[in-house]
């Protein structure tokens, strides 16, 4: 590399002093809902009715909850389903099969989610923080800094909205079902650990306690918070773990992913292997391909050696190469096709499962690393 990569200060904790989002049904476990019902002076079955509307019928409009007493309907809904996300802007791409929504949170913070419909599945990419404190220099979100963690319900509400959009035919292709969730939007999910795990539990709990999704169809991404990766392995929720590695050596990764100065490449990969050993779930290694930065053939060899040193690559890990989604004004650019092809060839020749990700929504800045939550 000809010049050092400039990075922003690394922030692990959000700024203090902000108010909390209003309490919402999705913030509570089933047991906590009973306590909430008592606190609100409601019989437990009323809370269960509201949960059925929200999680099973994907309904948030109190007027549609006709099994609630008309005189109490608005008050009950306001107490259990306070508005969390307000739509600022929706953009479409890929003939209407990709929708990016800009949301305003209760305190004015802006976040984005992206719903992508494919022939065999529909995936929503959700945010877990307003902004991001990881300061990766090639990522638009990281350049804006961290504003705050999102609550469990603020995360879940993005998924409920996406599920409703599919069910009600708001995505090109007619009515369908949301099948997958990826925590690859704004923020570092494992830096907001409690809320993210709570959201996963709401998504996977059967209705009316949750959305009844398969944990295997939920992917939690991280830049390598090794202790949290190990903790996630023991949660009993067999999600897919995606490690955003982006470099196989500490010298380069210290610059591309500043958290590496606290949790090295070896620590991150060892924690990923531990996740596989505990859950049996194959880990995805995310690797953004940047021209003349991390895409050299010798780095492909180094990555293969790193992964194979922790076990047979084909068995425990899959490498997902991501053609860099370029950010205006950034000096980081997408790798040449021939360099990506050679990178794949070298990994596959060592027996490591490898693919190049199909990019969606880059023309509306909806692709991985492009979410900046601007309402300009």
Mind explaining what this structure looks like?
The chain is an alpha/beta fold. It has one domain: Aldolase class I (TIM Barrel), CATH 3.20.20.70. It has 12 helices and 12 strands. It has helices at 30-40, 44-56, 73-80, 140-143, 152-167, 193-204, 226-233, 250-256, 265-279, 297-308, 313-316, 337-349, and strands at 86-93, 98-104, 110-117, 122-125, 129-131, 146-149, 180-183, 218-222, 240-244, 283-289, 317-323, 353-356. The protein has a 10-stranded mixed beta sheet. Strands 5-6 form a two-stranded antiparallel sheet. The longest helix is centred in the middle third of the chain and has 16 residues, at 152-167.
Mean of all residue-level pLDDT scores:
91
Structural class: alpha/beta
Main sheet? 10 strands, mixed
Which stretches of 5+ consecutive residues score pLDDT under 50? 1-17
What is the 3D shape?
A: elongated
Per DSSP, the total helix count is: 12
CATH H-tier superfamily: Aldolase class I
Kindly provide the radius of gyration, computed on alpha-carbon positions and rounded to a whole number of angstroms.
21 Å
Distance between the termini: 35 Å
Family: Belongs to the radical SAM superfamily. RlmN family.
EC number: 2.1.1.192
Pfam families: Radical_SAM (PF04055)
Subcellular location: Cytoplasm
């Amino acid at each position: 590399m000809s010049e050092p990569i400039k990075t922003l200060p690394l922030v692990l904790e959000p700024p203090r002093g902000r108010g909390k989002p209003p309490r919402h049904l999705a913030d509570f476990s089933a047991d906590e809902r009973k306590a909430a019902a008592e606190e609100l002076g409601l019989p437990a079955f009323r809370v269960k009715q509201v949960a059925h509307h929200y999680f099973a019928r994907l309904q948030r409009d109190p007027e549609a909850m006709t099994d609630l007493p008309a005189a109490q309907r608005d008050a009950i809904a306001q107490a259990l389903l306070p508005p969390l996300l307000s739509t600022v802007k929706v953009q479409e791409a890929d003939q209407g099969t990709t929708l990016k929504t800009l949301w305003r949170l209760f305190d004015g913070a802006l976040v984005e989610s992206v719903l992508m419909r494919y022939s065999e599945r529909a995936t929503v990419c959700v945010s877990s923080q307003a902004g991001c404190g990881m300061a990766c220099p090639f990522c638009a979100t990281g350049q804006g800094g961290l504003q705050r963690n999102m609550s469990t319900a603020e995360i879940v509400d993005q998924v409920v909205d996406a599920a409703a959009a599919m069910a009600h035919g708001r995505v090109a292709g007619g009515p369908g079902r949301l099948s997958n969730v990826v925590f690859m939007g704004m923020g570092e999910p494992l830096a907001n650990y409690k809320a993210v795990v709570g959201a996963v539990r709401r998504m996977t709990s059967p209705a009316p306690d949750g959305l009844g999704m398969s944990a295997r169809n939920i992917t939690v991404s991280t830049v390598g918070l090794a202790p949290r990766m190990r903790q996630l392995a023991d949660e009993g929720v067999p999600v897919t773990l995606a490690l955003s590695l982006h470099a196989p050596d500490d010298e380069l990764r210290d610059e591309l992913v500043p958290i590496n100065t606290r949790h090295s490449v070896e620590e991150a990969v060892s924690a990923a292997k531990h996740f596989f050993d505990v859950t049996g779930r194959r880990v995805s290694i995310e690797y953004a391909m940047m021209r003349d930065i991390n895409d050299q053939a010798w780095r492909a060899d180094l990555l293969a050696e790193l992964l194979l040193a922790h076990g047979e690559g084909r068995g425990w890990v899959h490498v997902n190469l991501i053609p860099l989604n370029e950010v205006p004004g950034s000096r980081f650019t997408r790798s040449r096709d021939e360099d990506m092809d050679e990178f794949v060839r070298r990994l596959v020749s060592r027996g490591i499962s490898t693919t190049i990700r199909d990019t969606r929504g880059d023309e509306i800045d909806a692709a991985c690393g492009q979410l900046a939550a601007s309402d300009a």
